[in-house]
Backbone:
């Protein structure tokens, strides 16, 4: 067992990835150098906006390089429950946002030529019991009826061998969007693209305080390496949010994530387990 993910056994921080001294002034300061912060910085820098990414450690040390690498639409809470709790209007907006996120990721990989072992091909959820399969049928019908999402496919047990190398499941639900990627390669490739676009990547630069500038003309971000004047500040710290912005901290809590890995699988074993290179859940 180890606390450093095995992903980093394959790749380390690129030697040519720049790490800057924090600038004195930028249009936008972004706190957090993970997927959210880097994507935002890339978008802003490509529009000619000066931006600094403030990362308290080293890029790739947080959740962006330690997740399971699965790419799929949807949210943690089942979309049906989101509809029940928050209503169909917000539910559709959240669902559409999750679809757009997958599309945006794929577009970014292509545009920036990020090599992160992305498979595409979607994924398949497997039914461990007959009741699970029945629920999958209902889920597919609900998605088609309420969201006009016709893309999922229910696979009965007799056809499951076409998708996975096992006979123990009772069926499956295919989601054709998304796939799998190497998260560490992805975050490093994204950081390199962001640097090429002109953003300042400031590692080992912990934001200590955010305060309004005189006359409400922007903000001052105090860091362990000096102060930065910024027109706008974006918090992109997610589960690592501390009391820097208490209003955000109160709404976020950290969730532990644990993974089990096997020894590397041979290409033939990979093909047997997932002949169409779908991620399996």
Residues:
């Amino acid at each position: 067992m180890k606390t450093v993910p095995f992903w980093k056994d394959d790749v380390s921080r690129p030697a040519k990835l720049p790490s800057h001294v924090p600038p004195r002034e930028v249009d936008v300061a972004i706190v957090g150098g993970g997927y959210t912060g880097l994507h935002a910085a890339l978008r802003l820098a490509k529009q000619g906006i000066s931006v600094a990414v403030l990362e308290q450690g080293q890029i790739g040390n947080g959740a962006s390089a330690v997740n399971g690498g699965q790419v799929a639409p949807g949210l943690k809470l089942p979309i049906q429950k989101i509809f029940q709790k928050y209503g169909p209007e917000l539910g559709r907006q959240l669902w559409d946002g999750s679809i757009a996120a997958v599309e945006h990721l794929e577009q970014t990989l292509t545009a920036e030529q990020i090599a992160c072992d992305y498979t595409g091909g979607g994924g398949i959820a497997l039914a461990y019991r007959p009741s699970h399969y029945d629920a999958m049928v209902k889920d597919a019908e609900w998605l088609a009826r309420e969201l006009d999402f016709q893309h999922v496919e229910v696979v009965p047990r007799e056809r499951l061998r076409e998708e996975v190398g096992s006979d123990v499941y009772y069926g499956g639900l295919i989601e054709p969007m998304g796939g799998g990627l190497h998260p560490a390669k992805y975050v490093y490739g994204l950081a390199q693209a962001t640097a090429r676009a002109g953003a300042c990547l400031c590692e080992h630069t912990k934001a200590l305080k955010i305060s309004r500038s005189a006359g409400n003309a922007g903000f001052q971000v105090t860091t362990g390496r000096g102060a930065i004047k910024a027109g706008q500040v974006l918090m992109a710290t997610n589960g690592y949010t501390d009391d820097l912005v208490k209003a955000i901290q109160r709404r976020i809590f950290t969730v532990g994530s644990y993974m089990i890995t096997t020894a590397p699988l041979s290409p033939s074993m990979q093909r047997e387990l997932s002949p169409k290179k779908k991620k399996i859940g």
